[in-house]
Write a structure and sequence with these properties.
heterodimer; A: Rossmann fold; 8 strands; B: alpha/beta; Rossmann fold; 2 domains; five-stranded mixed beta sheet; 16 strands; about 40% helix
Chain lengths: ~280, ~375
């Protein structure tokens, strides 16, 4: 039985999706539609943009105005759409490689501008589409097909990166914590400014197999066990902090939004008498 | 009689004036010499008419945002020069396969790499056609003067909208920075083409070609037609398709919409070609050098004419072939080490002998050099 949410927001004719058994992309994509539904957004007014990668195929399954762009450039396309028509609700779906490697520059600048785009990162710590190469969020010492001897890079913290670059809302949750994920998506979409929700996700096929992380279910359980709210983390005794990852809201402030500021420029020029 | 609107301006300024008259409402770009005036003037003027300008974080983002602006329904432009043109290539291909109207101005400078940033060149002619990967058709127009920059910028927007395609205005540092007198036409005196959009309540498939249309109608995002755009090969629905049959149909349609409409797209100019026994083919600012040389050669009794392609891609194949049949020998003069000459050789085959006169050291060709080359080979 297809749920009402799926009936309403998914392009049923394009299912089943291309994702592997055990992949968490479906969970995150569905959570996004739940957030959109609970917010009561007009489906015709929602634009979902993506770059290239496994998660970037999500827009093709979603019944909105959907744009599947070039690798890493989703935010730049989204910026053009949002500035051209600020009334649209613009959401970006990206993977960790797409948004923090090849598209890293676009991420920090979209955040810096505080343009009203919600970015949802499906962070599975690996390049899945191309077969398991290490990404900017692959943990040090973890393995990928291009890190057969263990990754020597240090990983990005995408949520903190976006917050530092100027996002006015930034949070991290996991594919396991669906209720929290829906809430974060709603808060992010409601924020008038650049919003980031990083969703720790799983890739059993590539990351899991390379790193002996077990099945999809076991990897989901690991998300449950390893991620802890940043407030709760502070209260943990030192010996229990080992191996824990932080989730929670890292930033939630109000600052002038880019397209609104641009509109002020237009209004001043068009309203003023002596602007030459 | 209204007073003529005569102005003295640079090619880059004329380009922005024309873009605004053509209906440009969105500009996204990144500063680069010698195209920067295009961004500066767009930044100054667009918000005054309710349009939008944004300086993006890099060249790639510049074209990406411009494509986004077009998808949202606004006529969009980006501008750049050599290094930036290289960076924009992937998304030029995206605009080609997704069929997004867009004008890309490339004020050519000396390359490769950082090359000669403030000097003219015509070294991006082949890149304009084949710079992005994969097979596709493209339109590229090359003006020789400030007035023509104005005219072909209008034309570039019209062609982009009409054929749902990226159109490249391939100008150069000389034309871009040269100041000349131009007459700005009255808005009512120029033809403006807007993309066809689906009617309200219409059963819309985003990539379905309907009877009587050249390209599928294009709905702006947010207008109530929820559809998908992708750089993957897609079918009429817009959704990705791995079907080789579909890819074949789609690619051929994308190419033929340009190639089959050469009559509408191809512009060229001829000077003293009627009785010419020898021809010099040249475009952009170099054609002005050649025109001067042709006069000199005629004074000296040589029956030489100038054929000047204005539309570089698709090439004026029929007309160039006719030139090849008319004359014994052809010189192709251009500011590069031999690019468009290859296209001329391809077209004229053995009908005429083809020679090249070119240079890419940042100096324009001088009339005397053209005269000397003509005396040497004609």
């Amino acid at each position: 039985m297809t749920s009402e949410i799926v009936q309403k927001y998914f392009r049923i004719e394009n299912l089943p999706h291309i994702w592997c058994p055990g992949c968490s992309n479906g969970v995150v994509t569905r959570a996004l539609t739940m957030a959109i539904d609970e917010l009561g957004l007009d489906q015709d007014n929602v634009v979902v943009v993506s770059g290239i990668g496994c998660s970037s195929r999500a827009p093709g399954y979603l019944d909105f105005n959907t744009l599947h762009t070039t690798h890493g450039r989703g935010l730049a396309f989204a910026t053009g759409i949002k500035l051209a028509n600020p009334k649209l609700d613009v959401i970006l779906i990206a993977g960790d490689g797409d948004v923090s490697a090849i598209g890293g520059n676009h991420l920090i600048h979209a955040a810096r501008r505080n343009i009203d785009i919600t970015t949802i990162v499906f962070n599975n710590n690996i390049y899945g589409m191309t077969g398991g190469q290490y990404s900017p969020t692959t943990p040090t010492a973890a393995k990928g097909t291009t890190a057969p001897h263990g990754n020597i890079d240090k990983p990005f913290d995408i949520a903190q990166l976006a917050a530092a670059a100027g996002a006015t809302y930034s949070s991290r949750t996991t594919a396991y914590h669906v209720n929290q994920m829906v809430k974060y998506f709603k808060d992010a979409i409601s924020n008038k400014g650049f919003s980031m929700v990083e969703v720790a996700s799983i890739c059993p096929t590539y990351y899991g197999r390379k790193n002996k992380s077990g099945s999809g279910v076991q990897m989901m359980q690991a998300l449950k066990n390893d991620f802890i709210d940043k407030m709760a983390y502070e209260k943990l005794p030192e010996e229990k902090k080992e191996g824990k990852h932080l989730m929670g809201v890292f930033k939630n402030i109000t600052l002038p939004e880019y397209t609104a500021e641009y509109q002020r420029v237009i209004d001043a020029l068009q309203g003023g008498e002596n602007n030459e | 009689m209204s007073k003529k609107n005569i102005k003295l301006m640079q090619g880059n300024e004329a380009c922005v004036e024309a873009a605004l008259m053509a209906g440009m409402k969105f500009f996204a770009g990144y500063p680069i010499t010698p195209s920067t005036e295009l961004a500066e003037l767009s930044a100054e003027k667009l918000p005054r008419i309710g349009g939008k300008f944004i300086q993006m974080e890099d060249e790639i983002a510049g074209i990406a945002a411009a494509i986004g602006g077009s998808i949202a329904g606004l006529k969009s432009m980006t501008a750049t020069s050599g290094p930036g043109f290289s960076l924009k290539q992937e998304n030029i291909g995206y605009a080609a396969i997704a069929e997004i109207p867009l004008v890309i101005v490339n004020v050519m400078r000396g390359g490769p790499s950082t090359g000669l940033p403030t000097s003219p060149a015509q070294g991006d002619v082949m890149q304009a056609k084949w710079g992005t990967h994969g097979d596709h058709a493209i339109i590229a127009l090359s003006p020789q003067s400030v007035m023509e920059t104005f005219d072909i910028t209008i034309k570039a927007f019209n062609l982009a909208e009409k054929y749902r395609t990226p159109v490249i205005v391939l100008t150069d540092e000389v034309v871009g920075h040269m100041r000349e007198k131009i007459e700005i036409p009255e808005p009512g005196d120029i033809e403006i083409f807007d993309r066809k959009v689906p009617g309200p309540g219409e059963d819309y498939l985003p990539y379905r070609l309907e009877e009587g249309d050249i390209v599928p109608k294009m709905a702006p995002f947010g207008a109530g037609y929820r559809y998908h755009i992708t750089g993957l090969f897609h079918d009429e629905t817009g959704f990705p398709s791995n079907s080789t049959d579909n890819a074949d149909i789609m690619l051929k349609r994308m190419i033929s919409k340009i190639e089959d409409n050469r009559e509408d797209i191809v512009m060229y100019d001829e000077f003293m070609m009627e009785d010419a026994e020898y021809a010099i083919i040249s475009y952009g600012s170099t054609a002005r050098t050649v025109r001067n040389a042709v006069k000199t050669l005629r004074e000296q009794g040589m029956k030489v004419g100038l054929f000047r392609p204005i539309t570089i891609w698709p090439s004026a194949e029929k007309e160039i072939k006719a030139v090849g049949r008319q004359v014994k020998k052809i010189i192709v003069a251009e500011m590069n080490m031999g690019q468009y000459v290859q296209e001329i050789e391809r077209i004229v085959k053995s009908d005429a002998e083809v020679f090249h006169l070119g240079r890419a050291n940042g100096e324009v060709l001088m009339p005397i050099e053209v005269v000397q080359k003509a005396k040497e080979v004609f």
